[in-house]
Each structure stands twice: as structure tokens, then as C-alpha cells.
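Example record for the data management plan.
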Amino acid sequence: MEMIEKLSLAGIVPVIKVEDAADAVPLCKALSDGGLPVAEITFRSDAAEEAIRRVHAELPDVILGAGTVITKDQVDRAVNAGATYIVSPGLNPEIVRYCQEKNVPIVPGCANPSDIEVALSLGLKTVKFFPAEPLGGLKLIKAMAAPYGGVTFLPTGGINEQNLNDYLSFPKIVACGGSWMVPGDAVAQKDWKRIEDITRSAVNKMLGLEVRHVGVNSGTPEQSMRDAQTLSRLLGWPIDEHKNANFVGDGFEVMKVPFRGAHGHIAVACNSIKRARWHMERRGFTFDDSSIIMKDGKMRAIYLKDEIAGFAVHLLQK
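Corresponding structural encoding:
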């Protein structure tokens, strides 16, 4: 899997400055436990190289990058320490070519169309947009994306939990970088639990998981209608009859024929099926690829392999 695709599935790239290399492992573990096994450790401190080395050695599953890389020496130090990709604040063709010679993925910072054209001339398809909010945010990214259809963006700078999904809703954005999961006072106090909680909140916000409806296996068309009428009378919701099921409002799908799950199924809506699947697989769940439902060339739904309490569970694209 290419590095950009990994970052896209993670969705959020924590950008962190480590002043004390001893903090790097517990900090990255807190991020990982909160749902983000990703870290861009910036060369804004003298501890960066050692921090990368320690995380690489002790947390090998973390997708580890080096940020604020502006010299060849920093590229070498970062890669030798264990960084698997490089991020730079600006676009320096010399640094880009140096990384390409070493076969190290690099995402350079671009702030305008001229930067993007230089990036394209270097064979790059994904660029960092920095500093995102001060430059014009999502509005400017959309404007620049129009003439450069093959370019994707990783915006960083001013992004937080409140505007995160605005950015990620634009398909040309692969992921967002941010440091709000790692407040300076939490690091100073070594409050790793607080960082874990903030990270988990960010992941939950990004995935946008919500129960969309519950499917009930009534068994026969006649029983389905009786059950639907009972639910409708109870809740005051209308019945919408379909070929294989009776819907009661938006909350219940009462099946006319036997379907997945001993008792029925639960539909969980999400902002991105691919991203939600990646995060859920990290939590130990597996999916049934034969269950994928496509619509207009895009994945509409996919089921978990195993039932939960007698219910099949599927993700549903919002």
C-alpha cells in the first residue's frame, strides 16, 4: 500500500513537536490508543531525530513521518532514524529530487498555483497545503484544484475538530494534518490519557458513525406488515412499503423475507466507508468483501463477517 493511501485511510495526521525524546513513545502510544497510529514528528526541535528513532524501535506499527524537513542532512537523519516519509513546509526542488533518488515519499508544502506546477514538473501528485487556514482554507484549495485535476492535497495549519470534516468532505483532500490532539500543556504534564481522549474524539468526529436503521427479520410478508404496523402505532412513524421490506420511518427496516443476521441487521452510517473500515480493522474486526454493494461506481455498503448479538452489521455510506 502506498504511503499516501495509508495516510488517506487514517484521515488525520498528528503533527507533533517533541522537546524531550523520552516523551515520544508515550505520546505516540497515546495517539495510537486513541485511534491514530500516525505521527509526523517535526524537525522543529533538537530532539526530533532521537524521537523518531525511539518510536520506530518501540512502536513499529506507527506510520511515522518527519516534518519541517528543509535540508538534505535532515532527510538523511530522519530516514536513518526510521521515518518512512518526509514532509516539508515549502517546495524545494532540490530536496524533492533528493528524496526521490532515495525512493522516500515526500509531501512538499505548496501555497499557490506556481508551486503546484513545479510539483507536477517533479512528478508529484500529492502536496501539502500550508498554512491552510491563513491562506484561504478549503475555498482556496477548491479553486486551485479546478485547473489541476490530478493533484490531491494534505492541508495543515489551522485545522481542528470543528472544521476537519469540511476539509475531508472534498474528494481532492487525502487527509488533514493537525496538532490540536497534542496540546502543549498536556505534553508538559505528561497527561497521555488526555491526549488519547482528544484523539479518540477527533477520530469519532471524522468517522461520523451513527446507527441509521435496524433491520428486523420478521420472516414473512404478512408478519412484516403486522410488525411494521405495531412499530408505526408505537412511534407515530409512517410505513413505506418496498419489495423486500417495510420501512417504519427511517429507523426500522422490517424484512419480508429472511435476510442477514439471526435476528436482523444494523446499518451504521459513516462519512467514508473505506476510512471507517480501516479504523475498524485496527480494532480487530473483519469485513466480508462478497457483501459489498456498489452504486454509481462507489461503495455503498459492506457487512462485517461476524454477527453481534445475533445481528449482522453493515457500514452505510452517508
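Summary line stored alongside the record: DSSP finds 13 helices and 16 strands in the chain.
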